[in-house]
């Protein structure tokens, strides 16, 4: 039975993850670009205050994308008489998407969708494989006692770290594709080879991994909330099913799964809580991952050495000093919209696919 449970969870999570990532991919690109954009504005302004204006003219050669409206994003985070007018700090996702579409068309919104779908499918499959395996091991040694929220969080964190050696390089690759200069029409494989040949090579593909000391809590919180509330809802279903006298195998299986709408709504709530709790670390990770090619473009700069030494806490502190909490939560809107609907779709499909796999295995 444990093997059947793991198989059902892995297949369901993999298919659900790939589908949800592909269906909402334009929002994924939008939130990634918005998270990376603000960081570039701050760094461009600091470099422009110590370099000539001719260096600003070479920004187009950077691999990390600038704001869709270059004239609106050359501002400095610190007051400077030579700084350009600063863009509205509360630039909406809709206005940013419109500017990006007018500048580059539809292509940037789907750049890297294949790698993103593969990364999501692999991540979800490995996560639920590890999580279900850890849960079965815990149940074996602890007996049939129910798992509390603390145990769920711990198992979720362990499951998250289990897939990172494989999925983090794919995530870093996808981030570079999403934030790249699409006017140069570099293929996905060319971007990967460039990343491996520059700087730290394979080691650079794990940039931002220290963020997962906190980010591992994101799926842990999300699935803990989901599983805990799901357990309460299913217990009530079984209770009401027993009271009504429905003891057929079909009704018993139905009482062991959520409806599509229940899974969708519960997935939305769980993802919202997890995203808000961990977002500053998520944004700092994206900033570091999108930073590499820019620092490589500034060859010979003394600032590039300090960029390479940047870490997650330092990046969060820099963002907070630059713009307060608003800067730390830049891009939260698109992340919530995409993440909430993606998680809801994924959990809805996972519940239905797992139910179908269980029926096939029990037939």
Labels describing this entry:
about 0% strand, 15 helices, about 375 residues, mainly alpha, globular
Description:
By secondary structure, this protein is mostly helical. It has helices at residues 2-23, 25-48, 53-56, 93-104, 113-142, 149-178, 188-197, 212-215, 217-244, 249-254, 260-289, 292-297, 302-308, 312-328, 332-362. Helix 6 packs across helix 9 (217-244). The protein is globular and about 65 Å long.
Question: Which helices and strands, and how do they pair?
Answer:
Elements: H1 2-23, H2 25-48, H3 53-56, H4 93-104, H5 113-142, H6 149-178, H7 188-197, H8 212-215, H9 217-244, H10 249-254, H11 260-289, H12 292-297, H13 302-308, H14 312-328, H15 332-362
Helix pairs in contact: 1-5, 1-15, 2-11, 2-15, 5-6, 6-9, 9-11, 11-14, 11-15
